[in-house]
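pls design
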């Protein structure tokens, strides 16, 4: 079966804060922001050579171990599960940055290198000062940038619980994205053990096994793709699934995660885990009732469930300000202590 080719992700150039705020984000679609960081000193250094990039990074690097992941050559850079799903196909460890850099440069011409990466490290903690030399103005200055470095690695389609702007500083990166509603077609792996936090798709987008994962053909009908070079950026809206392939032996990616939810509100992922505990095992007729209750009170599918109450009596059904969220948190602590 021949799958449809993903359509190109929409592209923008010369994006300023107003364009991002008024055009890009409201569209609710991924977007490539070509050349957004083309003037970054780190990008300029990377375009000259890998050696110049590493020399630039060494100016900022701290002398302490950072988290690393390493997989054997036979996984061909694709970090995922072992065949039995009882463990991952890579190991976690630590390394000083200098030997990590040396390894990347030394292994560039190895046709079968180990897959190695440093992932999601907060830049002020490992390259203090880098964030001042290399920054964007599309989002608030309080968003902490993170660094992702490695060789030719492949990250399975997954979602973030944030909005995301990512910038290719060195190398090239290929992205494939799927809307949140494609969850049913992406064949998600176990929740109990994941490569990087949230669950991932088991389907290899480059070599999908449609006998094993037939519904993936539906996901490909709405897939979007793009390849980014140094200086290019991508905007990934909340909860969009994205698979990422690093295409060069030396890659550096910087991303910014943020979420506009109330800073004192809970994590919806935690609520999902509690729903497994409290709702999933109920009889079908009871689950149907709870689905209707959630639709009514939480998702408001029939309008405002508190419109018949005066403002002072709405409680959790009204506006959730800091005080109300604090009361809910206290109640949840009491509930969880009884479990």
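designed seq:
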């Amino acid at each position: 079966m021949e799958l449809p080719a993903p359509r190109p992700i929409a592209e923008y150039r010369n994006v300023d804060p107003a364009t991002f705020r008024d055009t890009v984000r409201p569209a609710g679609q991924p977007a490539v922001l070509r050349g957004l960081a083309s003037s970054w000193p780190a990008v300029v250094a990377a375009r000259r050579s890998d050696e110049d990039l590493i020399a630039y990074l060494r100016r900022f690097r701290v002398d302490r171990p950072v988290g690393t992941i390493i997989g054997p050559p036979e996984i061909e850079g694709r970090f995922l599960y072992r065949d039995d799903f009882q463990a991952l196909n890579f190991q976690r460890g630590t390394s000083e940055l200098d030997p990590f850099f040396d390894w990347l440069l030394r292994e560039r011409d190895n046709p079968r290198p180990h897959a190695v990466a440093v992932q999601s490290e907060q830049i002020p903690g490992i390259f203090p000062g880098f964030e001042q030399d290399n920054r964007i103005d599309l989002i608030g200055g309080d968003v902490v940038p993170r660094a992702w470095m490695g060789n030719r690695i492949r990250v399975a389609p997954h979602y973030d619980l944030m909005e995301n702007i990512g910038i290719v500083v060195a190398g090239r990166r290929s992205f494939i994205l799927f809307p949140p509603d494609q969850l049913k077609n992406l064949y998600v792996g176990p929740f109990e053990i994941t490569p990087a936090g949230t669950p991932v798709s088991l389907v290899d987008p480059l070599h999908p096994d449609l006998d094993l994962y037939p519904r993936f053909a539906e996901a490909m009908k709405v897939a979007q793709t793009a390849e980014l070079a140094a200086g290019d950026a991508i905007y990934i809206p909340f909860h969009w699934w994205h698979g990422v392939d690093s295409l060069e032996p030396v890659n550096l990616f910087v991303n910014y995660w943020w979420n506009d939810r109330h800073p004192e509100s809970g994590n919806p992922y935690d609520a999902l885990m509690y729903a497994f505990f409290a709702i999933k095992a109920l009889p079908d007729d009871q689950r149907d009732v709870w689905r209707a209750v959630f639709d009514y009170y939480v998702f408001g599918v029939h309008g405002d469930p508190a419109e018949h109450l005066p403002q002072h009596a709405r409680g959790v059904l009204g506006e959730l300000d800091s005080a109300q969220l604090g009361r809910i948190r206290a109640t949840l602590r009491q509930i969880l202590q009884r479990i």
